[in-house]
Amino acid sequence: MAVFSSIGKRFCNQALNGSKPSRLHFQSIRTLLLQSASESVKVHRHSDADSGIVQINMERPEAKNALGKDMLRGLLNSFEAISTDPAANVLMICSSVSRVFCAGADLKERLTMNVSEVRATVNSLRSTFTFLEALEIPTIAVIEGAALGGGLEMALSCDLRICGEDAKLALPETGLAVIPGAGGTQRLPRLVGKSIAKELIFTGRKISARDALSIGLINYCTPAGEAYSKALEVARDINQKGPVAVRMAKRAINEGLEVNMASGLDVEEECYEQTLHTNDRLEGLDAFAEKRKPLYKGN
Ligand SMILES: CC(C)(COP(=O)([O-])OP(=O)([O-])OC[C@H]1O[C@@H](n2cnc3c(N)ncnc32)[C@H](O)[C@@H]1OP(=O)([O-])[O-])[C@@H](O)C(=O)NCCC(=O)NCCSC(=O)C[C@@](C)(O)CC(=O)[O-]
């Protein structure tokens, strides 16, 4: 059921960690609750000019947003709903829980599972984050506090990561005598290089947002409590661009990086072709000639 709500102060954990809140935290951001995908996952659509921005809030405070069955089902339901929403142009993934983005696998639930249940759960975590990575629209992980194990693996499946400076990131799985199982062994080295990824995964070491920025793991490190404001700024910027163009740019980069340069350039050509016949391309040229802002409709 769709319900109008205001998530101005509780959309993200940033204002609750004792740091000085920024001006934006006290603005009321009007959103529409699109879906309660589960007890612990809510999907909101921003309103008015921001209506192309969709936001997922993780809300499982008692377990620090650990990825238990209900949370995982809620995330997959949300990603599936967003994948078929033609009005969605950009997704922000946030936490409503103070000082944590996501604590990774639910270790209490795990204790009750036999080996085949563990295998099925890890496979399900991996495929859920692969689905997230494959969404056509850009995705932004908004991180204040801890992003650990599966929590960091979810963020690695997003296109961009924006952290408050109190954030702590790690893949601590080897300390639990397992390995990252939700894509971490593959996505971390692709992002930061083999050598740094190996060190972080072998040791399970927690790194600060500043260190994460310096190794290219995240896009921005903001003052503590301001990751949401920065992410919203970036999301608004993306939301104003030609929606087909942004989707095709994401596809060209993702698919092109998996193949050699010549095949990658073929992918680029194919993706460019998709933009050629859009009304938005003509609107962009008209707006330039008329010295006004373009108004894109996504077709
Ligand atoms: C997140 C901080 C820093 C907060 O640190 P804090 O703010 O000091 O909070 P806390 O440690 O007091 O935790 C508050 C409550 O949340 C619970 N909690 C907390 N985390 C979890 C969890 N993961 N699963 C289940 N419950 C969790 C914790 O047990 C506690 O419950 P209480 O004792 O009050 O009943 C700290 O709690 C922490 O370090 N948690 C553990 C992080 C961790 O090791 N995560 C698992 C990574 S392994 C993984 O993700 C595996 C994967 C996905 O790659 C593959 C696979 O599935 O196997």
From TrEMBL:
GO terms for biological process: fatty acid beta-oxidation; proteolysis. One of its GO terms (molecular function) is peptidase activity. Belongs to the enoyl-CoA hydratase/isomerase family. Its EC number is 4.2.1.18. This is Methylglutaconyl-CoA hydratase. The keyword Heme does not apply. The keyword Isomerase does not apply. Signal peptide: none annotated. It holds the Pfam family ECH_1. Transmembrane segments: none annotated. It is an enzyme of class 4 (lyase). InterPro entries: ClpP/crotonase-like_dom_sf, Enoyl-CoA_hyd/isom_CS, Enoyl-CoA_hydra/iso, Enoyl-CoA_hydra_C. GO terms for cellular component: mitochondrion. Keywords: Hydrolase, Lyase, Protease. SUPFAM superfamilies: ClpP/crotonase.
